[in-house]
Amino acid sequence: MGVNKNLMSKIKKALISLSNKDNLKNLLTCLRKHKIQIISSGGTYKAIKKLKFKCLEVSDFTNSPEILDGRVKTLHPKIHAGILNKRKNKKHIQQLKENNFENIDLVIVNFYPFEETIKNTKDHKKIIENIDVGGPTMVRAAAKNYDDVTVITSVDQYDDLISQLNTNKGSTSVDFRQKMSKIAFSETAYYDALISNYFNKLTNDDFPKKKILASNLIDKLRYGENPHQHGAIYSSSKELKLKQLNGKQLSYNNFNDIFAALTISKSLSKNNGVVIVKHANPCGVSIRKNNVECYKSALACDPVSAFGGIVSCNFKVSAKLATELNKIFLEVIVANGFDNSALKILKKRKNIRLIDATNFNKTENLKIMSNNEDFLIQNDDKINFQTKDFKVVSKLKPSSSQMKNLIFAFNICRYVKSNAIVLAHENSIVGIGSGQPSRLDSCEIAINKMKKFVNPDDDIVAASDAFFPFVDGIEKLIQSGVSAVIQPAGSIRDKEIIKFANETGTILVFSKTRHFRH
Fold first, then answer.
1. What is the band of 4 on the pLDDT scale with cuts at 50, 70, 90?
2. Against a cut of 0.90, is the pTM above it?
3. Which residue numbers are catalytic?
């Protein structure tokens, strides 16, 4: 019977160095079964001895003590030569003999908990001490030499290793070693990315010369935007801050809409507001105090577009509201929790996705848009609008309620695809015009939506994400019943717009900032 060239020689020595010491016993039992000698150090050595398994301390293996408070223990030629030598290279074999070095065939390492440390403390000295040096160095060495060495970097891989050793009588296949090597290099890259990003944040450098993204696969999706596209969702955390309580798997488009809805919801006052989104654009928003009336008002903005859309409630859903939500077909309902009675009502539709976003908060993370090998990065547009950010430029001044509605409409406007026009009435959006090459077209769409579904008699305000370059847009809004307009300043025709507002008795407010959303 021929030798299986896919297998390495039987593993004789393993070096184990772990921060996460879970599920060690089964692994150690397997190593002992296959007569694999264990080398370890520090806390891992103590844990192995406590489980009553034989283990050689690294300092005894290298004949060199741990120094510098444990900063230097595995950084030794005997360790790295044992890992990195090519087993079939005669020169390497000779050099190992000359130096009395031995092969290390299996490296089982996970790193100091740097990621957990930066989440739990701002103590810079403690964070620095949780940057692992020896662990990633050994992992990279073993991963590079996967032809002859097996590298394990996660507790989740122990069962696969045990299966390999039992199946192959103390050895592993090259396919397995290569797979573990690939994962190992991802682990070291991810770890270094976390450290790099920590220092960038520490020095307030959002745009360093080298930008490294660290993320974890959360789920492979059924497909991307369309069935012929592949899709997945990643996160810089190890899990999403969203909890699915009901319904089938979320799609790429579901996630896109959910994030669009939550971005708007979290810009509203705490525990207040309903946002309805379709194709990543809002089609209804309200901040009325009564939650049921708030939803009904948001829905009234455009009930046709809301069909099959996503509703985000910036509060806990009650049974009374759940009854209203169940009256139309919705893909997803997102909320800051659901009463048990509400869940019973909503779950009658088994496919509706119910998402608890109680733990979801907008962070200071950057927005990224990619294309081929290139990607754009920018800070998020999340200015917390206040009255001082605006200037009344018309002779006629807004009342406090009008000003509140103007700022509300302007806030929603920045989340609508440009060119964006948003109409509001009594703390609810009543018309939205989005994604048009012409601002005038957006005005017409917003007006037509309002007249079709809501059509209030008075006190309608309008917001534009950028300035009106000509009088025609603001003229069309005024003709439709708009009594107050808010827009960014900056046009060479600003004076003409102000003059027209004064001539028509229209309130005009200028913003200091523009808010395109392409």
1. low
2. no
3. 144, 279
